[in-house]
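Project standup — Tuesday

K.O.: blocked on the structure for the chain from last sprint. Re-posting the sequence here as requested.
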Amino acid sequence: MATTAALGALLWAHLAAASRPVVWEATKVVSQPVSVRTPGALAACFARPDTPGVLLGMNPGIASAEKVEDVDDQTSIWLGRTAPMRFAPGVSVTSCMRFSVTFRPPSMCLEVLGTSVEATGPAAVRKMIEAILPEVESRNTVEVCGDTITSSALLKLQLPLPRWIPLPREQIAKAGPPILQKQLEEDLSALLANYADFVGGALAGEEAPEGAEAEAKAA
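H.V.: unblocked you, prediction finished:
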């Protein structure tokens, strides 16, 4: 049994080493105006200490996010998880990402420190998933200026693409970036739209309607 396990480990090591990396990269800047009546209201809302958790929770690609460590008064480490992807009965994969979040209002920078997977199912399936797990480089700076919030993001994936996967490397290398670019744009647009709605709701009770202000003055 020990010999079989050793041979299996050597085989997987060989498959992982004999990979043909493919790199996909996308960058995008998206801005979203936010309707507020009071100058500075958006910046004040963004400066609230719960903003990092709010923004991570609104990210379309993250199902849950929790803070695991405070590095200092401006930087913290967060763990985000995607929703489980189910491939077959008893087989599911959840991607996990560790984020460094630097919060210096009116801006916040999120950077992926590392990724891992939580997989269920046979050991062979879990090893196969680990063998094709991409390396992720991701940075997103969110900044408020006046009544506009802007997100500037970089996303870079390096896929191992082991040789036992019978797919043409050149075709995958060419087809991937446009898909990644489109997904990045959609995710950033959804994130900022969600946050704009959140701000509108959060400020609704703090900003008196113009009619109410006039009635108060008349009284």
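K.O.: great, moving the ticket to review. Residues 169-204 form the longest helix (36 residues). The first strand starts at residue 22 and ends at 33.
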